[in-house]
UniProtKB/TrEMBL annotation:
<dbReference type="InterPro" id="IPR027450">
    <property type="entry name" value="AlkB-like"/>
</dbReference>
<dbReference type="InterPro" id="IPR032854">
    <property type="entry name" value="ALKBH3"/>
</dbReference>
<dbReference type="InterPro" id="IPR005123">
    <property type="entry name" value="Oxoglu/Fe-dep_dioxygenase_dom"/>
</dbReference>
<dbReference type="InterPro" id="IPR037151">
    <property type="entry name" value="AlkB-like_sf"/>
</dbReference>
<dbReference type="Pfam" id="PF13532">
    <property type="entry name" value="2OG-FeII_Oxy_2"/>
</dbReference>
<dbReference type="GO" id="GO:0051213">
    <property type="term" value="F:dioxygenase activity"/>
</dbReference>
<feature type="domain" description="Fe2OG dioxygenase">
    <location>
        <begin position="108"/>
        <end position="206"/>
    </location>
</feature>
<keyword id="KW-0560">Oxidoreductase</keyword>
<keyword id="KW-0223">Dioxygenase</keyword>
<protein>
    <submittedName>
        <fullName>Alkylated DNA repair dioxygenase AlkB</fullName>
    </submittedName>
</protein>
<dbReference type="GO" id="GO:0006307">
    <property type="term" value="P:DNA alkylation repair"/>
</dbReference>
Amino acid sequence: MSAALQGSLFDDAEEMSLGSLKNARRTMLGRGAWIDVLPAWLAGASTLFDLLVDQVPWRAERRQMYDRVVAVPRLLSSYREGDPLPQPILAEARDALSAHYAPELGEPFRTAGLCLYRDGADSVAWHGDTIGRGSTEDTMVAILSVGAPRVLALRPKGGGEVIRRALGHGDLIVMGGSCQRTWDHAIPKTGKAVGPRISIQFRPRGVS
Ligand SMILES: O=C(O)CCC(=O)C(=O)O
Ligand SMILES: [Fe+2]
């Protein structure tokens, strides 16, 4: 891209900045689980969305389902501990979350998982992030969303009332306490015409 064109693109781009995490509102879910929600934590979310769509090495995954191999219905990119994040504002976000939640979490957020939901047919099924320590210990998973709003649904493991939060355009949700082992979460498919959404999940070491 020419420097002139790049310059003009960034002149139009809304500047990115993070608000105060003190404004996050906690909801107790029961069974020792909670969520904190902070709408529009990131200003300039569409700028971040545009940069990430272009710059992140998105990968399509396939997985075995019964006797077939099927495409995972979203694109992914993972950043391990120490990997440089694709945009400096994401390191800022991770560090602000680490500082704010340190008294409760007792350790920093270290990894980042990025998901791109291209349209309403992309989704993630009901699950808890229980591959690591989340299956046995209280922990936190913090998710920053940019792009079109999509519903994050939560329900107690084994069934119960479903809680829904629409997340997009710079919104933050933090799932904490026992949430990963006592509740499941999902991004359900939708038949509505929705644009793409990117979610950025920050997790502590050993949680996935
Ligand atoms: O896209 C989201 O906000 C949720 C993603 C998620 O639950 C996961 O990747 O474990
Ligand atoms: Fe998850």
